[in-house]
Input
Amino acid sequence: MRINRSLLVLGAVMIMRTALADDGAADSNQANAAELAKKLQNPIANLISVPVQNNWDFGIGQADAMRFTANVQPVIPFSIGDNWNLITRTIMPIIHAESPLAGGSDTSGFGDIVQSFFLSPKEAVGGWIVGGGPVFLYPSASEDNLGGQKWGAGPTAVALRQENGWTYGMLANHLWNFAGSGSRQDVNATFMQPFLAYTTKTFTTLQLNTESTYDWENTRWTVPLNLTVQQLVKFGSQPVAFTVGGRYYAEKAEGGPDWGLRFAVTLLFPK
Output
């Protein structure tokens, strides 16, 4: 009887230890997922990610044409010493544009690449995550009407705060051309992206931002308002974020789009 009791006690202890270990592993996984969801909202997080952002814009020109743009946007951070990170953000557009004129020809191909470099302190500055550096425009478009045929450069910066599930801040840059085709219009444009996001305990994020551009050459704004929902999930050990939403153009050039849709898939590679 003593042996049986001892075995029962030992078995109970082992079950309790296994349960505690499972709880600890679950808590750790939950914490890791929460940190990953938080980093997703930070444009200069110390996290390798590869978003593929699919955009459909409608109501363009006389023909109410559609323009599809798939932005492949790898983000790669590099550690520089104990205090700094260098984050590269590259936007590589793949475009299919219906003709804005009835009877015109559609166009497909690559657009111009924009690449930003952010030097960012590893620790927040007064509660703010900040970064800045140069941004470059490369005339990589495969068709004349999909790019500007200009080389460009300028400054870029970002500042944001994250607290109690909220993320808010702004990313901005300005581009001037310094070389390229003399027959094409000069580039002199300011881009501003204020953003606000809230992430729930189930790693669902509601996002509101604008991706506003002011064209100083033509003195006009393009202001799409984006409202999206993002969900972080795991396929085995691979974390993936799915984003879906819509956009409304509050301000646009004559013949520009009226509204649009967005669907994005982001592959994440935490260190």
The chain has a mean pLDDT of 92. The first helix runs from residue 2 to 40. The first strand starts at residue 48 and ends at 60. The radius of gyration is 24 Å.
